[in-house]
Amino acid sequence: MGTFIQLVVDGLSTGSIYAALALAIVLVNQATGLINFAQGGMAVLAAYVAWWFTGMGVPLILAILFSVLISFVLGALIERYVMRRFERGDPDTAVVATIGLLTLITGICGWLFTYNNQQFASLFPLDTVQFFGASISIRSIGTTVVIIAIMLLLQGLFLGTKLGLALRAVAINPQSASYSGLPVGRLLMTGWGLAAALGAVAGALVAPQLTLTPGMMDTALVYALAAVILGGLTSPFGVVLAAWLIGVLENLAAVYVPFIGYDLKVAVPFALIFLVLILRPQGLFGRKAVVRV
């Protein structure tokens, strides 16, 4: 039982890393209708900015806040001067542009900060507590609590605020939103800025559990996209649950399913994606799109 609980706890901790990035992807999608593959690179750049500030003697919490503000501005500028040239064209072209941004930002991080592993301080203590024979780190608990808080805030933003409703309206039909008097350009910039700021929080949460490198988020981005597909692009609540499910099932399959083991556990989320796409293409908690003709 102790081993089972330990695997579940570790899976929830790992899933929280995926969830942090998945929530930023959902935010961009709800604001623009696009899947932003550059989100991982933007989170890494924000983590490096916070790390640089701490090296200059700035307290960690202030360094993270500065990186969040800088990320918001950077996200808004990327939307205004880069992505806006693609958003009204073929969606596939815009997606390819975000992949190009991912490569560019990762390369810039390597050029500015080198590809050496860097240690990033943790917001939470590294102590552990015992629970039914399982060791639970306070850092994992803190990360999970932060993810839950962000999930609730995003859910409230999209469902209970005028800004959230305006962002969704622009993502669904920017032309109609413009005719209704909504400032489409500013809303798109706000959506990208908020997603970049959320990515900065994700980077600050992930970097202490990994080592800070330009490719730190590459694997997490794949799992985050899997969580988005499983949970549904329209549901922050759903993507967080999906990320936790992926983390837990991966760990359990690696230990309790002999032919999978640790070598094939990466196949678990993709098997789940395949199953969900067949049975429920909009995701477990997503809404089915209805198009009137």
From TrEMBL:
Phosphoprotein found in the keyword field: no
One Gene Ontology molecular-function label: transmembrane transporter activity
Highest rank taxon of the organism: Bacteria
Subcellular location: Cell membrane
Transmembrane segments annotated in the record for this chain: 6-27, 60-82, 94-114, 145-167, 187-208, 220-247, 259-279
PANTHER family, A to Z: ABC TRANSPORTER PERMEASE PROTEIN (PTHR11795:SF451), BRANCHED-CHAIN AMINO ACID TRANSPORT SYSTEM PERMEASE PROTEIN LIVH (PTHR11795)
Protein name per UniProt: Branched-chain amino acid ABC transporter permease
Source organism of the structure: Microbacterium lushaniae
